[in-house]
Design goal:
alpha/beta; Urease, subunit C, domain 1; 2 domains; Amidohydrolase-related domain-containing protein
Length: about 300
Amino acid sequence: MKYIIENILLCQSDQDQSKSLLIEDSKVVNAYSRLSHYNYMRLNTDNFSITPGHVMIDLSIININDFSCFKERMKHLQNIGCTTLISASDLKYESQFEFEIKKAKHAFINSSIDFLIGIKIPLKKLTATLVRKCNKYKVPVVFVEINSIEELYIPEWQRIRDELFPFHIVILPIWNIQASKMKFKKIKRDWKVLLTEYHITTYENAPNEHQPLSKEVLSNIGLYPKKGALLTGSDADYLLFKNDNLNKDKLEITQQLPDVVCANGVIKKAGVDIFIRPGSGKEIIVNVPRKFVSINQAFQPTTISIDY
Protein backbone atom coordinates (compact mmCIF):
# COMPACT_ATOMS: atom_id res chain seq x y z
CA MET A 1 0.00 0.00 0.00
CA LYS A 2 1.16 3.51 -0.82
CA TYR A 3 0.36 6.54 1.32
CA ILE A 4 1.74 10.02 1.96
CA ILE A 5 2.68 11.68 5.23
CA GLU A 6 2.40 15.30 4.13
CA ASN A 7 4.03 18.47 5.46
CA ILE A 8 4.99 17.08 8.86
CA LEU A 9 7.75 18.50 11.05
CA LEU A 10 10.69 16.11 10.80
CA CYS A 11 12.85 16.39 13.93
CA GLN A 12 16.43 15.18 13.53
CA SER A 13 19.69 15.82 15.35
CA ASP A 14 21.07 18.18 12.71
CA GLN A 15 17.93 20.17 11.87
CA ASP A 16 14.13 20.31 11.96
CA GLN A 17 12.29 20.74 8.68
CA SER A 18 8.90 20.28 7.07
CA LYS A 19 8.85 17.08 5.05
CA SER A 20 6.52 14.96 2.97
CA LEU A 21 7.11 11.21 2.74
CA LEU A 22 5.75 8.72 0.22
CA ILE A 23 5.63 5.30 1.89
CA GLU A 24 5.23 2.08 -0.06
CA ASP A 25 4.97 -1.07 2.05
CA SER A 26 8.22 -1.19 4.10
CA LYS A 27 10.15 1.59 2.34
CA VAL A 28 10.30 5.36 1.98
CA VAL A 29 10.17 5.75 -1.81
CA ASN A 30 10.17 9.56 -1.89
CA ALA A 31 11.15 12.16 0.68
CA TYR A 32 10.69 15.76 -0.43
CA SER A 33 9.17 18.97 0.87
CA ARG A 34 6.18 18.65 -1.49
CA LEU A 35 4.44 15.62 -2.98
CA SER A 36 1.27 17.32 -4.23
CA HIS A 37 1.51 15.72 -7.70
CA TYR A 38 0.97 12.23 -6.26
CA ASN A 39 -2.60 10.96 -5.98
CA TYR A 40 -2.35 8.63 -2.98
CA MET A 41 -4.04 8.45 0.39
CA ARG A 42 -2.76 11.12 2.76
CA LEU A 43 -2.45 10.86 6.52
CA ASN A 44 -3.69 13.73 8.65
CA THR A 45 -0.64 14.51 10.79
CA ASP A 46 -1.32 18.19 11.52
CA ASN A 47 -0.88 17.72 15.28
CA PHE A 48 2.19 15.49 15.13
CA SER A 49 5.95 15.65 14.68
CA ILE A 50 7.97 12.77 13.25
CA THR A 51 11.42 11.28 13.80
CA PRO A 52 13.18 8.24 12.33
CA GLY A 53 12.76 5.09 14.41
CA HIS A 54 15.35 4.69 17.16
CA VAL A 55 18.27 2.30 16.83
CA MET A 56 19.31 1.09 20.29
CA ILE A 57 21.76 -1.26 21.99
CA ASP A 58 20.67 -4.08 24.30
CA LEU A 59 23.44 -6.50 25.24
CA SER A 60 21.51 -8.63 27.73
CA ILE A 61 18.43 -9.50 25.67
CA ILE A 62 20.40 -12.16 23.83
CA ASN A 63 20.63 -14.16 27.09
CA ILE A 64 16.89 -14.16 27.87
CA ASN A 65 15.68 -17.74 27.47
CA ASP A 66 12.16 -17.40 28.83
CA PHE A 67 9.79 -16.36 26.04
CA SER A 68 7.48 -14.32 28.28
CA CYS A 69 10.46 -12.32 29.59
CA PHE A 70 11.76 -11.89 26.04
CA LYS A 71 8.33 -10.68 24.97
CA GLU A 72 8.21 -8.16 27.83
CA ARG A 73 11.61 -6.77 26.82
CA MET A 74 10.38 -6.43 23.24
CA LYS A 75 7.29 -4.65 24.51
CA HIS A 76 9.41 -2.20 26.51
CA LEU A 77 11.69 -1.50 23.55
CA GLN A 78 8.78 -0.88 21.19
CA ASN A 79 7.16 1.38 23.77
CA ILE A 80 10.23 3.67 23.86
CA GLY A 81 10.48 3.76 20.07
CA CYS A 82 13.13 1.15 19.27
CA THR A 83 12.69 -0.08 15.69
CA THR A 84 16.17 -1.62 15.28
CA LEU A 85 18.19 -3.40 17.95
CA ILE A 86 21.93 -4.00 18.25
CA SER A 87 23.00 -6.89 20.46
CA ALA A 88 26.18 -8.96 20.76
CA SER A 89 27.28 -12.57 21.13
CA ASP A 90 29.28 -12.93 24.33
CA LEU A 91 32.59 -14.64 23.50
CA LYS A 92 35.26 -15.71 25.93
CA TYR A 93 37.50 -17.16 23.24
CA GLU A 94 37.87 -16.68 19.50
CA SER A 95 37.14 -20.37 18.91
CA GLN A 96 33.53 -19.77 20.03
CA PHE A 97 32.86 -17.30 17.20
CA GLU A 98 30.84 -19.40 14.74
CA PHE A 99 28.87 -21.23 17.44
CA GLU A 100 27.94 -18.06 19.33
CA ILE A 101 26.92 -16.16 16.18
CA LYS A 102 24.62 -19.04 15.22
CA LYS A 103 23.27 -19.15 18.77
CA ALA A 104 22.60 -15.39 18.71
CA LYS A 105 20.63 -15.62 15.49
CA HIS A 106 18.52 -18.39 17.01
CA ALA A 107 17.91 -16.23 20.11
CA PHE A 108 16.21 -13.63 17.89
CA ILE A 109 14.00 -16.08 16.03
CA ASN A 110 10.96 -14.62 17.84
CA SER A 111 12.07 -11.00 17.65
CA SER A 112 9.44 -8.46 16.65
CA ILE A 113 12.19 -5.85 16.07
CA ASP A 114 14.84 -5.79 13.34
CA PHE A 115 18.22 -6.67 14.79
CA LEU A 116 21.95 -6.54 14.11
CA ILE A 117 24.36 -8.94 15.81
CA GLY A 118 27.81 -7.88 16.95
CA ILE A 119 30.21 -9.62 19.31
CA LYS A 120 31.47 -8.90 22.82
CA ILE A 121 34.88 -10.20 23.89
CA PRO A 122 37.60 -9.36 26.45
CA LEU A 123 40.05 -6.92 24.89
CA LYS A 124 42.97 -9.22 25.66
CA LYS A 125 41.35 -11.85 23.38
CA LEU A 126 40.99 -9.49 20.41
CA THR A 127 43.09 -10.76 17.50
CA ALA A 128 43.61 -10.15 13.80
CA THR A 129 42.07 -13.53 12.96
CA LEU A 130 38.95 -12.59 14.95
CA VAL A 131 38.66 -9.37 12.94
CA ARG A 132 39.02 -11.45 9.78
CA LYS A 133 36.06 -13.57 10.93
CA CYS A 134 34.06 -10.39 11.50
CA ASN A 135 34.75 -9.54 7.88
CA LYS A 136 33.69 -13.00 6.70
CA TYR A 137 30.47 -13.09 8.74
CA LYS A 138 29.63 -9.38 8.27
CA VAL A 139 29.88 -8.41 11.94
CA PRO A 140 30.40 -4.61 11.94
CA VAL A 141 30.60 -3.87 15.67
CA VAL A 142 32.79 -5.36 18.41
CA PHE A 143 32.33 -4.57 22.10
CA VAL A 144 35.55 -5.09 24.06
CA GLU A 145 35.66 -5.50 27.84
CA ILE A 146 38.66 -3.72 29.36
CA ASN A 147 39.72 -4.69 32.88
CA SER A 148 43.09 -2.93 33.21
CA ILE A 149 45.22 -0.34 31.44
CA GLU A 150 47.78 -3.04 30.63
CA GLU A 151 45.22 -4.79 28.43
CA LEU A 152 45.29 -1.86 26.01
CA TYR A 153 48.67 -3.01 24.75
CA ILE A 154 48.01 -6.76 24.48
CA PRO A 155 46.32 -6.84 21.03
CA GLU A 156 48.56 -6.64 17.97
CA TRP A 157 47.02 -3.42 16.73
CA GLN A 158 48.96 -3.17 13.48
CA ARG A 159 47.87 -6.66 12.42
CA ILE A 160 44.30 -5.81 13.40
CA ARG A 161 44.51 -2.61 11.36
CA ASP A 162 45.71 -4.61 8.35
CA GLU A 163 42.55 -6.76 8.51
CA LEU A 164 40.14 -3.82 8.49
CA PHE A 165 40.07 -3.32 4.73
CA PRO A 166 37.51 -3.37 3.20
CA PHE A 167 35.28 -4.21 6.20
CA HIS A 168 36.08 -1.47 8.71
CA ILE A 169 34.56 -2.60 12.03
CA VAL A 170 33.76 -0.30 14.96
CA ILE A 171 35.32 -1.18 18.33
CA LEU A 172 33.35 -0.02 21.39
CA PRO A 173 34.98 -0.19 24.84
CA ILE A 174 33.19 -1.43 27.96
CA TRP A 175 35.24 -0.25 30.92
CA ASN A 176 35.54 -2.53 33.97
CA ILE A 177 38.27 -0.50 35.65
CA GLN A 178 38.18 0.88 39.18
CA ALA A 179 40.16 4.12 39.19
CA SER A 180 39.96 7.72 40.29
CA LYS A 181 38.27 10.16 37.96
CA MET A 182 41.58 11.69 36.95
CA LYS A 183 43.27 8.33 36.32
CA PHE A 184 40.26 7.01 34.41
CA LYS A 185 40.35 10.10 32.21
CA LYS A 186 44.00 9.40 31.44
CA ILE A 187 43.24 5.76 30.58
CA LYS A 188 40.57 6.85 28.12
CA ARG A 189 42.98 9.36 26.65
CA ASP A 190 45.56 6.59 26.20
CA TRP A 191 42.91 4.49 24.46
CA LYS A 192 42.10 7.42 22.18
CA VAL A 193 45.74 8.04 21.27
CA LEU A 194 46.42 4.35 20.69
CA LEU A 195 43.53 3.64 18.33
CA THR A 196 43.89 6.97 16.53
CA GLU A 197 47.46 5.98 15.74
CA TYR A 198 46.17 2.89 13.93
CA HIS A 199 43.14 4.64 12.38
CA ILE A 200 40.67 2.28 14.05
CA THR A 201 37.12 3.56 14.52
CA THR A 202 36.14 3.70 18.17
CA TYR A 203 34.58 5.84 20.89
CA GLU A 204 35.77 6.62 24.39
CA ASN A 205 32.67 4.88 25.76
CA ALA A 206 30.18 2.45 24.29
CA PRO A 207 26.87 4.30 23.83
CA ASN A 208 24.33 3.82 26.61
CA GLU A 209 21.88 0.96 26.20
CA HIS A 210 18.22 1.78 25.45
CA GLN A 211 19.19 5.24 24.19
CA PRO A 212 18.87 6.32 20.53
CA LEU A 213 22.15 6.08 18.63
CA SER A 214 23.35 9.16 16.79
CA LYS A 215 23.63 9.51 13.03
CA GLU A 216 27.42 9.45 13.40
CA VAL A 217 27.44 6.12 15.23
CA LEU A 218 24.96 4.60 12.77
CA SER A 219 27.07 5.79 9.83
CA ASN A 220 30.21 4.23 11.29
CA ILE A 221 28.46 0.91 11.89
CA GLY A 222 26.96 1.00 8.40
CA LEU A 223 23.26 1.17 9.29
CA TYR A 224 22.65 4.73 8.10
CA PRO A 225 20.70 5.68 5.99
CA LYS A 226 18.82 2.35 5.81
CA LYS A 227 18.07 2.80 9.49
CA GLY A 228 17.92 5.96 11.59
CA ALA A 229 16.84 8.14 8.66
CA LEU A 230 13.77 9.10 6.65
CA LEU A 231 15.30 9.50 3.21
CA THR A 232 14.47 8.02 -0.16
CA GLY A 233 15.33 4.33 0.13
CA SER A 234 15.25 4.19 3.94
CA ASP A 235 13.18 1.60 5.75
CA ALA A 236 9.78 2.97 6.76
CA ASP A 237 10.69 3.17 10.46
CA TYR A 238 9.23 6.27 12.08
CA LEU A 239 7.86 7.65 15.34
CA LEU A 240 5.01 10.12 15.73
CA PHE A 241 4.75 12.51 18.68
CA LYS A 242 1.76 14.67 19.58
CA ASN A 243 2.85 18.29 19.45
CA ASP A 244 0.76 19.14 22.53
CA ASN A 245 2.78 16.68 24.62
CA LEU A 246 6.08 18.00 23.27
CA ASN A 247 5.16 21.58 24.10
CA LYS A 248 3.81 20.67 27.54
CA ASP A 249 6.76 18.61 28.76
CA LYS A 250 9.46 20.78 27.11
CA LEU A 251 11.82 17.82 26.83
CA GLU A 252 14.08 16.79 23.98
CA ILE A 253 12.08 14.69 21.55
CA THR A 254 14.44 11.73 22.10
CA GLN A 255 13.43 11.78 25.80
CA GLN A 256 9.74 11.46 24.99
CA LEU A 257 7.69 8.32 24.56
CA PRO A 258 6.31 8.21 21.01
CA ASP A 259 2.56 8.07 20.52
CA VAL A 260 2.89 5.96 17.37
CA VAL A 261 5.68 3.55 16.39
CA CYS A 262 5.92 2.22 12.85
CA ALA A 263 8.60 -0.25 11.73
CA ASN A 264 8.95 -1.44 8.14
CA GLY A 265 5.59 0.16 7.42
CA VAL A 266 3.81 -1.82 10.17
CA ILE A 267 2.30 -0.16 13.24
CA LYS A 268 3.98 -1.47 16.41
CA LYS A 269 2.49 1.01 18.87
CA ALA A 270 -0.62 3.22 18.80
CA GLY A 271 -1.34 5.20 21.94
CA VAL A 272 -1.26 2.76 24.87
CA ASP A 273 -1.52 -0.32 22.63
CA ILE A 274 1.70 -2.16 21.77
CA PHE A 275 1.62 -4.87 19.11
CA ILE A 276 4.12 -7.71 19.45
CA ARG A 277 4.55 -9.83 16.32
CA PRO A 278 7.02 -12.62 17.16
CA GLY A 279 9.25 -13.48 14.23
CA SER A 280 8.53 -10.31 12.26
CA GLY A 281 11.93 -8.79 13.05
CA LYS A 282 14.60 -9.49 10.46
CA GLU A 283 18.38 -9.61 10.73
CA ILE A 284 20.14 -6.58 9.27
CA ILE A 285 23.29 -7.42 7.30
CA VAL A 286 25.86 -4.65 6.85
CA ASN A 287 27.97 -5.13 3.75
CA VAL A 288 30.06 -1.95 3.95
CA PRO A 289 30.57 -0.18 7.31
CA ARG A 290 31.33 3.56 7.19
CA LYS A 291 29.92 3.78 3.67
CA PHE A 292 28.10 7.07 4.29
CA VAL A 293 30.44 8.84 6.71
CA SER A 294 31.13 12.47 5.89
CA ILE A 295 34.25 13.40 3.91
CA ASN A 296 35.63 15.32 6.89
CA GLN A 297 35.19 12.33 9.19
CA ALA A 298 36.60 9.89 6.64
CA PHE A 299 39.90 11.75 6.44
CA GLN A 300 40.29 12.56 10.12
CA PRO A 301 41.38 10.36 13.04
CA THR A 302 38.50 8.06 13.83
CA THR A 303 38.52 8.03 17.62
CA ILE A 304 35.63 10.15 18.85
CA SER A 305 34.67 11.30 22.31
CA ILE A 306 31.19 10.84 23.73
CA ASP A 307 30.33 12.58 26.99
CA TYR A 308 27.36 11.45 29.08
